[in-house]
Write a structure and sequence with these properties.
heterodimer; A: 322 residues; alpha+beta; Immunoglobulin-like; six-stranded mixed β-sheet; five-stranded mixed β-sheet; 20% strand; B: 657 residues; Cytochrome C Oxidase, Chain A; two-stranded antiparallel sheet; two-stranded antiparallel ribbon
């Protein structure tokens, strides 16, 4: 190795070391996914750790072997063996087909078990009662409806701690994804259907929630707070919300669903019954079939707008179809 | 009248952003510069005869690679701009609208217009030479493939200054990409840019399959093919099954947008989930299409620079074939979070994990190729070695992502971004760089400067880890992809580091440009045609290869035929018994592919703006080209006489054949 090259290598190594140190230092903070606050996120973290360990069984030796082989068999090391024709060995090849197969088999079994256990629409405990929160992705804010309590919020959710919450997800916008990393993984929120996601907070706190699937221009603003509070505080919050001066009406919803950039958190004392089902089945109206022909002729650029307007004029009584 | 023109121009051209005006000016200046240089040095004829109308696979390969490097620059500038915007919280360097366009074009350019042409460039340069063929099976079609790619790429890139760029992500999920939420022309540019170049890709896939099946030198059985050729075969087979899905999917999206159909709309019984399934049925095989040839490159470089036969040849072939088959059964792992149910998710989780097995086996085989070898470290080998840790770690995070319930926590976060950049840069880009450095002397007859190359190598590698390692962490901290701005103070440190990494990679790219520029003027000439003392047939001829490649096609006996031939000569045994030189049958140049590509461009541009008066003549032009070719194909061949071949060989080899 020339002097120049050696200094180059040294510079590279010190740069890498510097970065690793920086990462370790910044690694002292708590990362949401690695710091779960609910049973779902907890199990998902277990799974992440199991996977990492299983993979490490192969990865770590491979990295070491790579370094050793490259170092030992460098051309300048004349002491090392040189067998240019050695290109096949049944035993070795069986070993490195075999070990990954075994590890992947183990991982596959674990994954299949957990996939069923952590099926997002499955209740955490079937004998426990639950809070239902319906989340609607709009451009660019989240609307939350509490069908049992009859209240609604924008960009903020309050849930009781220690109690399972059934989130029902849909969208009146391009497909989004509902994610509260500290409580558990995400599920898509899609128009024309309702997805269920069970989550639970084990301790009170303010958790970060976000839309995770790109929905257009101001997608970055689709974050929300999840406040987990004690049951007493939750009841208090519900009654406060009920006495809030604002009510969400059908017209109010139309206005809310218009694209907007930054929406401050809001509380609504009430919302029209069956609103969530109406949003879900919005595009299933028989009327929609008819309007679609009209709008196709009108030219494609205002296709969507026309359909949306036409739909909003429909009497909103249909609950069928879902 | 004037008012009308003004109004049209303000909608037609993208206005209002100084960055774009800058781009406008530089595009005009660059075009004028090129026109001036070509005219001043009287090079128009040269450009036309030697490049635009060429059907020579080596020249087509060079054009692919040149275009890919330009596109790497464009995609890289996009990346640096994104990282600049995300360096600090609440920055206003890019408006959300602009940011969304840039991450969309970054992805599209890097996959379709950088990785794919770089891959086809290497296919073109290497495959015929490696299997002892005089060209690809269909040289005319090959030229057409290139020009279709080029027309598609130009059409797509035009959206930056005309009409506006697409902004619905690189896979353009509806309904966001449908006319309801995206009425502008940007998505039309997306559809037609990709559609036109995709036809070229499909044709190339067919071309290389036939070339490999039918045009190998006598004695080269399938199991004696060089590993790169095997990887091309596996990738091309994957292409011909995957690309038709893309074509149809984009066609359906086009029908939604153009005719008001309802395949993927929210209303009228459309189903956006169908699109997501279809696009990933192509999209997942696509990532294996681009990574398999990189595996092929590593198999060549590792054997050459360890000066040892490739370990576990049969395993390697089997692994590659398995990967390309299973790649068609994993697509749903891109949307575990769609809620398809536990059984569906479990199935796709397991198929995804299974791919890790053959991939891991390949790593072991490369390692044991080096074991008991004599390893030297010129730049192609450095990229090969750097690939191993990068890809191993990227593969591990890939397995982590494949565990469906855990994926709920990774999906669409920066963890995912870090993963796929790690495998795509660490695998594909490192692989293609290794290939580019390795075969550069074969393409141009000289070696790239090693000193600048090593600077570029280290900067790339350091920048790569500095950029993407923090992204894993910030993803675990809840930062999702495609946000144009963030305000969480916890994410600042990691984002700053990541941006620094991106700039280091940008600097590394400049070093590569400088390396190429410097090497053109001062370089080590490849006088022997075998500058690396390598193993396969492409090194048995002068660099660059004559237009007919092999004066006499050699008889192949073993896998590393050229290495064995050199061994025979070293031992003083009888060298190759090459038959007498005979007249060589060659394809003639043709202007039709370039003209047909222009017609496609006109057709695409017309459809983007819904200008049927422009689209229909474009389509008619395409048919005229097809017609013209059908009735002139029999005149498109000629023979190189023996004397000329002998003369060429004598000059290239200094008299000794």
């Amino acid at each position: 190795m020339s002097k120049k090259r050696r200094s180059l290598v040294r510079a590279a190594f010190s740069a890498v070391t510097l970065v690793l140190t920086m990462l370790l230092l910044s690694g002292c903070g708590n990362y949401m996914v690695l710091d779960p606050k609910g049973p779902i996120a907890d199990k998902q973290l277990d799974l992440i750790i199991i996977t990492t360990l299983l993979c490490s069984i192969i990865i770590v030796p491979v990295l070491i072997i790579t370094f050793v082989i490259v170092w030992r068999y460098r051309a300048s090391n004349k002491k090392a063996d040189y067998k240019p024709e050695w290109a096949h060995n049944n035993l070795l090849e069986t070993i490195w087909w075999g070990i990954p197969i075994v590890i992947i088999a183990i991982l596959a079994i674990i994954t299949i078990r957990y996939t069923h256990e952590l099926e997002p629409s499955k209740a955490l405990a079937s004998d426990q009662d639950e809070v239902v929160v319906q989340a609607v992705s709009l451009n660019w804010k989240w609307l939350f409806l509490y069908p049992e309590e009859g209240i609604a919020t924008v960009n903020t959710v309050t849930i009781p701690e220690g109690k399972q919450v059934r989130f029902e997800l849909t969208a009146d916008s391009p497909m989004n994804s509902f994610w509260v990393p500290e409580l558990g993984g995400q599920i898509y929120a899609m128009s024309g259907m309702s997805m269920a996601l069970y989550l639970q907070a084990d301790e009170p706190g303010k958790y970060f929630g976000t839309g995770a699937n790109f929905t257009g221009e101001h997608f970055a603003n689709m974050t929300f707070d999840v406040n987990a509070v004690s049951q007493d505080d939750y009841d208090k919050w519900v009654s406060e919300a009920k006495s809030s001066p604002e009510q969400l009406t059908a017209e109010g919803y139309e206005k809310l669903s218009e694209p907007s950039e930054k929406e401050e958190p809001k509380l609504f004392a009430s919302f029209p019954e069956g609103m969530y089902d109406q949003i879900v089945t919005k595009y299933m109206h028989e009327g929609a079939e008819l309007h679609q022909h009209g709008s196709a002729q009108a030219g494609e650029s205002d296709n969507g707008k026309q359909t949306a307007e036409a739909n909003s004029e429909e009497p909103s009584s249909t609950h069928s179809g879902h | 009248m004037l008012e009308n023109i003004k109004e049209f121009a303000s909608e037609f051209f993208v206005t209002g952003d100084p960055l774009i005006y800058g781009a406008d000016v530089s595009i005009v200046l660059a075009t004028l510069g090129i026109v001036f240089v070509l005219t001043y040095f009287k090079k128009w004829g040269w450009l036309w005869r030697n490049w635009i109308t060429t059907v020579d696979h080596k020249k087509i390969g060079i054009m692919y690679i040149l275009a890919a490097i330009v596109m790497l620059f464009r995609g890289g500038v996009d990346a640096v701009m994104m990282r600049t915007q995300l360096a600090f919280p609440d920055l206003n360097f890019l408006e959300p609208e602009h940011y969304n366009q840039i991450f969309t074009t970054h992805g599209v350019v890097m996959i379709f217009f950088m990785a794919m042409p770089l891959m086809f460039g290497l296919f073109n340069i290497v495959v015929p030479l490696q299997i002892g063929a005089r060209d690809v099976a269909f040289p005319y079609l090959n030229s057409l493939s290139f020009w279709l790619f080029f027309a598609g790429a130009m059409l797509f890139n035009l959206s930056f200054v005309i009409g506006g760029s697409p902004d619905a992500g690189w896979l353009a999920y509806p309904p966001l990409s449908g006319s309801q939420f995206n009425p502008g022309v940007g998505q039309n540019f997306y559809i037609w840019g990709i559609q036109i170049s995709g036809i070229g890709s499909l044709a190339s896939g067919i071309n290389f399959i036939v070339t490999i099946l039918k045009m190998r030198a006598p004695g080269m059985t399938m199991m004696k093919m060089p590993m790169f050729t095997w990887s091309v075969f596996a990738a091309s087979t994957t292409i011909i099954f995957a690309f038709p899905i893309l074509t149809i999917t984009l066609l359906l999206l086009f029908m939604d947008r153009f005719f008001g159909a309802h395949f993927f709309t929210l209303d009228g019984g459309g189903n956006p989930m169908m699109y997501i399934n279809l696009i990933w049925m192509w999209g997942h095989p696509e990532v294996y299409i681009v990574v398999l040839p990189a595996f092929g490159v590593f198999s060549e470089t590792v054997a050459t620079f360890a000066r040892k036969r490739l370990f576990g040849y049969a395993s390697m072939v089997f692994a590659m074939v398995i990967i390309s088959i299973i790649s068609f059964f994993t697509w749903a792992h891109h949307f575990f979070t769609m809620g398809s149910g536990a059984n569906v998710n479990a199935f796709f989780a397991v198929t995804t994990m299974i791919i890790a097995i053959p991939t891991g086996v390949k790593i072991f085989n490369w390692l044991f190729t080096m074991y008991k070898g004599r390893i030297t470290f010129p730049t192609p080998m450095m990229w090969t070695i750097a690939f191993i840790p990068a890809f191993v770690v990227g593969g591990m995070t890939g397995v982590m992502l494949s565990v469906a319930p855990a994926d709920f926590q990774f999906h669409n976060s920066y963890f995912l971004i870090a993963h796929f950049h790690q495998v795509l840069i660490g695998g594909v880009v490192f692989g293609y760089f290794a290939g580019l450095y390795y075969w550069w002397p074969k393409m141009f007859g000289f070696k790239l400067n090693e000193y600048l190359g090593k600077w570029a190598f280290w900067l790339w590698n350091i920048g790569f880890y500095v950029c993407f390692m923090p992204q894993y962490l910030v993803g675990l901290d809840g930062m999702t992809r495609r946000i144009s701005v963030f305000s969480d103070p916890n994410w600042v440190g990691l984002n700053v580091v990541s941006t620094i990494g991106a700039y280091i990679m940008g600097l590394a790219f400049l070093f590569q440009v400088a390396q190429i520029g410097y090497s053109i003027f001062r370089h080590e000439k490849d006088t022997t045609g075998d500058i690396w003392d390598a193993r396969t047939l492409e090194w048995s001829m002068p660099s660059p290869a004559p237009e007919y490649n092999f004066a006499v096609i050699p008889q192949v006996h073993g896998r590393d035929e050229w290495w064995e031939e050199k061994e025979r000569r070293r031992r003083g045994e009888k060298p190759w018994q090459l038959g007498p030189i005979e007249p060589i049958h060659m394809p003639k140049n043709s202007a039709i592919p370039a003209i047909m590509a222009i017609c496609w461009f006109v057709l695409g541009f017309g459809l983007v703006f819904h200008w049927l008066w422009m689209a229909i003549p474009g389509l008619i032009g395409v048919f005229i080209c097809l017609y013209a070719r059908s009735f002139s194909a029999h005149k498109a061949e000629y023979y190189i006489p023996v004397e000329e071949i002998e003369r060429t060989e004598a000059t290239l080899r200094g008299g000794a054949v």
